[in-house]
Known about the structure:
There is one protein chain. By secondary structure, this protein is of the alpha/beta class. It has a single domain (4-206), classed as Nucleotidyltransferase, domain 5. Helix content is 45%, strand content 19%. Strands 5-4-1-2-3-6 form a 6-stranded mixed sheet. Helix 1 (35-48) packs antiparallel against helix 2. The termini are far apart.
Amino acid sequence: MSIEVWGDESGNDDFGATGSRYFIVATIVTTDPALASDLIALRRVLTLQGHPLHDGFHATEDLQAVRDQVFALLAQKEIRFDATIYLKSSVYDKVKKNTNNFYKWAWFYHLRYVLPRVVPQDATPFIGMATLGTRKRRTLLAEAIRDFVNQSLPGRRIRPAYWSCASHPCLQAADYYTWAVGKLYEGGEHRPYDAVKHQAGRVYRFV
């Protein structure tokens, strides 16, 4: 069985006064080989309708008319999403001291719970993660994510891909789910989350 796991995050991962209240990490899991091609087809249709989608879908920037159609497509797919929501004011002081450590800590607790539950014992999944920050930082975090994946799925040497969100439709799908969770927790907006809540696995608020 072919299984794919795609991950993204929402909110900023520092603790400045003007930053987001929450930092959210999320993954989607799918066995649907048509998900990427269907999103590309939708992008083509929306472009022909006059919507500017130069780098693919991005929930924060897309018009509501675009978001509605993307969520409608995703809601019909065989997708499970899981999210861990970190209230930044409640994060341990020792973790707050280093942004890289916080990022790694946030992903570790998410992946440690989710991956053993969504990846069958006999499967070797493809895992794609959205990039973040400078090249040096991306390399550091990619190594950490790889270690966390291998700790969560012992005995299977998996090397996650670490790509830009614009480079693959399934990362853009992960962005949409992460954005929906963020809108619910940061702004109390239910509409995006309600469109896909039937696909929710574990949505956990870490406080």
